[in-house]
Amino acid sequence: MKRVGRTFTIGELARRTGLPVKTIRFYSDEGLLPPTDRTHAGYRLYDTRSLARLELIRTLRELGLGLDDVAEVLASRVTVPQLANRHLEALDEQIRRLHLRRAVLRAVVKRKSELEEVKLMNKLASMSDDERMRLVEEFWTEVFDGLTMDAQFTARMRSAKPTLPDDPTPEQLEAWVEFAELIQDPSFRAAIRSMSEKQAAAIEAGEEMSPMATHWSSWSSRAQGYLEAGLAPDSAEGRALAGEIAHLSGDAEPGELAARIESGNDPRAERYWQLLATMNGWPPVPAQQAAVTWLVAALRCLST
């Protein structure tokens, strides 16, 4: 049975804890494990409290805490939960960055990227959610600046922001890279600005909500169905749909309607929402370009 007040040499501490003598001596030299006493020959001695203290030091070090942090705990300047919370936050951020780095490397392998693209992907992937949102906000600010727009419409456009998960897939990372390039493309900004100016002009002219906006989803779905069924734009179904669109648009001239739809049919606008869906894990946004092209052709057939 161990007697009270027993002391241990560094060698005995090493045998009891499994730690190297060199490590224990280092902790002692750093002031984390001061000796309780010394032998007549000057060798350091430690008591049972020192053994418990050494076990605590080892545990904290295995958790990744630095010597300064360990010293704070031992001196009771900070509690273990407080220190653990501090390091947990730092570790979470480190893990997030490692996940992003892994996603970048996977995307590089998949795309067989060259150096410049690797630099771009790494830069964009390192952005925080706030930075990504600011980039999107800057895009819509430029597009809508100074225009009289429908408040609900602009709010809906601005509210859709890209949010990458902590561990994005290569597809999500690629979508973000493409998305960031898209919204910074001057020609894309100019195209969306032009669409916005037309909408603002209609609002300022006192025009009511366009039937095109009200019925577009139904019309495009029907056009998609006819396209998939192999029907030509000049088929009876195509002419009937084109006639309905012209009638609900105030018996507008079909060729004029075709030109209007075509002018707003920039495939990049559709791509914008498809990329957002990929990044945010939303349901896929179906491609409508072919259906819109079919619908434009149907209107032009009606005008001939």
From TrEMBL:
Residues 7-76 form the HTH merR-type domain. The keyword Transport does not apply. InterPro entries: DNA-bd_dom_put_sf, MerR-type_HTH_dom, MerR_fam. GO terms for molecular function: DNA binding; DNA-binding transcription factor activity. Keywords: DNA-binding. This is MerR family transcriptional regulator. It comes from Amycolatopsis pithecellobii.
